[in-house]
Design goal:
B: mainly alpha; Sodium/glucose cotransporter; two-stranded antiparallel ribbon; 21 helices
């Protein structure tokens, strides 16, 4: 049963970092040949470098949102663990 | 016949076969007669196993063969696989955690199980299940296409049914150990497959450019080739017409990937949320590999590799480009390892896909409509049997129908699976959409998507229908109205269909809300979406 007033969504602003890799969809940024790297046109090495950006984004979010919902738990006595386990309800 | 390569291939294939059978006892639970065990490996895979399993599942033999082949023939446009697999993990990060938790809390095995629980609608769940099965089947057939490209390069390039015999033998073996060991078989084999793949590709991207005069020379050779061809769509860079297609195809494919039942199977089999989070950072290692592999398509151009003529169809098969490149540039023994990597690379995803399709059939069709009182044991039995049917269906596809047909179907499959996004992925966050809105959106997206694909001819003009997934905006037709008349800019069909799907879903939801139509019962609770491996009162695995 859905509880009214609780969407069950936990929001953290760190999650916004996950949007950065989407820059790889804006093709005009990198659809060019220069500057080259190891003989590779910009188009290719820029997108390969995108892998590192993606990893960085997911890693930072993982570390910064570890085991703590950033939205404060409602009520005074609920610490992080009870909220995480859904035991407070 | 290439004997050295063949011997290396057969030996490695033999090792994998033994592993496949041994896997039944690897980290075994109390019983294999439960879908949690047979179909999800006991839901207890840790970070490493999950990394190999999902990596082996997502980056398939066909990918390894087809992506460089596409680069070989089209150039820059074929590189979409890289942005696709880069944005995939940041996009999937949050939703995958939610679906893992709710599935762990409620014992869901398939995405359709979740839809059933979230909306209490067996109709919607049935649509999701059927979409999943239909989209997965040609994907399995494609793995066979990848495997056969290798077998033919090895010299097993006979005509008629004899030419297909090696493929058939390989698949019977696969079918038997998947039947016996369930998801544990591909999980264990994935270790071998991925280690081989990493070795081969790292050696290839270091050794071949040195041998062929560096990346500069390779890109020059590719540039010269594309400039010499009359085709307007190829080249070292994207052009004004295919940039939108590039971006929407990458985005659409990324959104679709974890909607495929087999990718979700790998995720649900993991032990906890931390395992998934770690893998969202670790899996891109495969993306890097895929990007480098894609460049081997250009290496093949520089090396002057020619595609093999398929004796069964009589056409040159561009999918043999990479195997042929390896055969021509590497010593025989190493080419054998490379072939084994691609060949075994076909077995892992084929096994997981057949398990995922079998799970869908068993949970959402068999138990829902045929035998409601099926016990967990009956379910496991039915799923094992279904996995056999699915695999032999895929073999029949390759044997009796032009392989081109499975490539077409896979194209269609991607567009189809994307249409389950509102019912599965959006439903993880909100129940705002009405059941009938989701059903209506599915029908609209699916119908329109199919019509658009049907009307797209192939680039060389040889085939009139299902030729590509790129639609010219000028041909976008809304009941006779051409909003972008005359435009030659291309866009991914799946993306257009998804937009249509969402628009219809929103409209019907608004109307249904006004009319106060009953919107099913949600069996899930908000806390279910945050359950983790160490949560209190966690549902036991493989009980009920």
């Amino acid at each position: 049963m859905t509880q009214p007033g609780r969407s069950g969504i936990r929001w953290s602003s760190w999650n916004l970092l996950l949007l950065i890799p989407l820059g790889l969809l804006i093709t005009p940024i990198f659809n060019r040949t220069g500057p080259e790297l190891f003989g590779m046109p910009f188009y290719y090495w820029f997108q390969l470098a995108g892998v590192a950006v993606g990893v960085l984004a997911t890693s930072i979010v993982f570390v910064m949102t570890k085991d703590k919902p950033t939205t404060p738990a409602p009520g005074p006595d609920r610490d992080v663990d009870t909220l995480d386990e859904g035991a407070g309800r | 016949m290439r004997w050295t390569e063949l011997v290396v291939f057969v030996v490695l294939f033999g090792v994998v076969t033994v592993l496949g059978f041994v896997a039944a006892r690897w980290k075994a639970g109390a019983t294999l007669d439960h879908l949690d065990e047979w179909g999800l490996g006991g839901r207890r895979f840790g970070s490493w196993i999950t990394w190999f399993l999902i990596g082996g599942d997502v980056y398939t033999a066909y990918t390894f063969v087809a992506v460089p082949a596409l680069m070989f023939s089209a150039g820059a446009a074929g590189f979409f696989a890289l942005p696709y697999t880069v944005i995939l993990y940041p996009l999937a990060f949050m939703p995958l955690l939610r679906i893992w938790s709710v599935s762990r809390a409620r014992g869901y095995v398939t995405p359709a199980d979740f839809v059933r629980g979230r909306y209490g609608s067996s109709v919607l769940a049935l649509l999701v299940a059927i979409t999943g099965i239909v989209a997965t089947m040609p994907y399995i057939a494609l793995q066979l296409v990848g495997l056969e490209a290798v077998l033919r390069t090895l010299g097993l390039n006979g005509s008629g049914i004899v030419g297909h015999l090696p493929l058939l033998i390989a698949f019977v073996i696969l079918a038997v150990y998947t039947y016996q060991s369930g998801l544990r078989a591909p999980a264990l084999i994935a270790f071998v497959k991925d280690i081989l793949v990493y070795i081969v590709i790292i050696v290839a991207v270091v050794y071949l450019p040195i041998k062929l005069g560096g990346w500069g020379a390779i890109f020059d050779a590719a540039d010269a080739k594309f400039k010499a061809t009359p085709a307007p769509g190829d080249g070292l860079l994207l052009n004004a017409n295919n940039q939108l297609q590039y971006a929407t195809l990458a985005l659409g494919s990324a959104l679709a990937l974890f909607l495929y039942p087999h990718s979700l199977t790998g995720v649900l089999a993991s032990r906890g949320r931390k395992v998934i989070k770690r893998n969202m950072s670790a899996l891109p290692a495969y993306s890097l590999l895929l990007g480098l592999l894609a460049l081997l398509g250009f290496v093949a151009i520089a090396a002057g590799t020619k595609p093999l003529i398929n004796q069964a169809t009589g056409n040159p098969d561009t999918n043999t480009i990479i195997p042929n490149l390896f055969a021509g540039q590497f010593p025989a023994w190493f080419a054998g390892i490379a072939f084994a990597a691609i060949g075994i690379g076909a077995l892992v995803p084929a096994a997981i896909m057949s398990i995922a399709a079998a799970n869908l059939w068993t949970r959402n069709i068999y138990k829902e409509y045929i035998r409601r009182d099926a016990t967990p044991k009956d379910e496991a039995k039915q799923a094992k049997f279904a996995s056999l049917v699915v695999k032999f269906g895929a073999v029949a596809f390759v044997l009796f129908i032009d392989p081109q047909f499975s490539i077409d179907l896979q194209l269609i499959g991607g567009v189809m699976i994307l249409q389950t996004l509102p019912a599965v992925a959006i439903a993880l966050y909100t129940r705002w959409f009405h059941i009938w809105g989701l059903v209506g959106g599915w029908i609209a997206g699916m119908g329109w998507g199919m019509i658009m694909l049907f009307n797209i001819p192939s680039a060389d003009g040889k085939r009139k229908h299902f030729g590509a997934s790129a639609l010219k905006l000028g041909e976008l037709n809304l009941f006779g109205w051409h909003p972008f008349g005359g435009s030659t800019v291309q866009i991914y069909v799946g993306f257009v269909a998804l937009v249509a799907n969402l628009v219809v879903a929103v409209l019907i939801t608004l109307v249904a809300g006004k009319l106060k139509v009953f919107n099913g019962i949600d069996q899930t609770e908000p806390a279910d979406y945050h359950v983790d491996e160490d949560s209190a009162k966690l549902r036991p695995v493989a009980a009920h």
